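Same chain as my last thread, 507 residues:
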Amino acid sequence: MTVIRQDDFIQSIHDALQHISYYHPVDYISALGAAYEREASPAAKDAIAQILTNSRMCAEGHRPICQDTGIVVVFLKVGMNVRWDATMTVEQMVNEGVRRGYADPANVLRASIVSDPAFGRKNTRDNTPAVIHTELVAGDHVEVKIAAKGGGSENKSKFAMLNPSDSIVDWVLKTVPTMGAGWCPPGMLGIGIGGSAEKAMVLAKESLMDAIDMSELKARGPQNTIEELRIELHDKVNQLGIGAQGLGGLTTVLDVKILDYPTHAASKPIAMIPNCAATRHVHFHLDGSGPAQLEIPRLADWPAVTWQPDRSARRVNLDTLTREEIATWKAGERLLLNGKLLTGRDAAHKRIADLFAKGEPLPNGVDFTNRIIYYVGPVDPVRDEVVGPAGPTTATRMDKFTELMLERTGLIGMIGKAERGPTGVEAIAKHRAAYLMAVGGAAYLVSKAIRKSRVVGFEDLGMEAIYEFEVEEMPVTVAVDSTGANVHATGPAEWKEKIGRGLPILT
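reply #2:
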């Protein structure tokens, strides 16, 4: 009989979470490298180059791939012949591993989990609890699949109860464009079909734990109808032209995974969950011989891609920026930012709105006049860092506050991830402001442009506090200019049309 020791299990969870924070799975790196070589869209190719460069930097520096270090999701298969040498429950051991993994002083990970989700939403400070799915199976070992799932991609999850005769392909192709680019493509789509409503969602999530193998599947040919469906969806989603970061291009998805389960004769439940550019998961087995031994990728596994700033990019002095200068920026133009900017995301925006509603001023030291705000919640710094990985968060979540911020604070620009919704674009054009896009999935690379950092407001909000960053050569793209021109609308439309005229897609 196999005996699994409590300390070995906890250590394995800790080690796995540290491992996936800075090592992309090799299958993802290989697939993304192939996509880079085939990409014909300059904007998408630049974004992929940033993601690949960031990935290698994280592997070398042992720092998080993304500032959103995720909600921990664990799939456990526990052999029924296993005996535990433990005083904790399995759930308690998982959460202790999470607690230790996220607080490791050598590589502190951002705590993003909030309790009382409907009301108080108070950060638990240690990223617990994890979401755990446990299955008892035959055997004498424990199989663990563990992932750290970012909020930007998780928020784009979709579900429907289709009629039995409805087309799965039609639903997917109709639904993917509604997800926008906040899930940070190129990544994977996990699809669950059948069972009940909750079963379909779990299937979709579990499918994302599988390795990317689309090129191998196409090379050998499909062997069943599910594999045929995977290929069809992969090709047709890429034909939509959404591209890396939603900028338009040949590669939106690197793979499509599908798991199915028997369902009621009257039902066809379907769930779709994307995995972002910060795809993070690892699998291991425990057989009683000690903690898991995780395979460390070789730096040679990364393609020889090193991102460099566009030589034609416009350099911007944030400390002297005016609305008149912003009016000269054009959608799609690349900028390198220098000087001071402020940060803020969901909680800070809500608190500002509450202050204004009560007729109260902003905190001393917080002045947005002629400033740009960066939607970010950075990781805490370690060693000699000014700030930890500090990539952008999804900008559409701030759309509801955009009119207020532009009308009441003197703000003239914003930086975030992915597209803006109609409300946000309308406010930007109305106030002759601009929205700049930074690449999601390049958080460590972006952090290297931040030379100074200090908290200037709402310190109690932790990573959601308002910081002042001083940046040097921070790369961004003008996504919405002062006229309302929007690259997230024009880019995908342009590339969908080009692909329709016969440009090759990823194979």
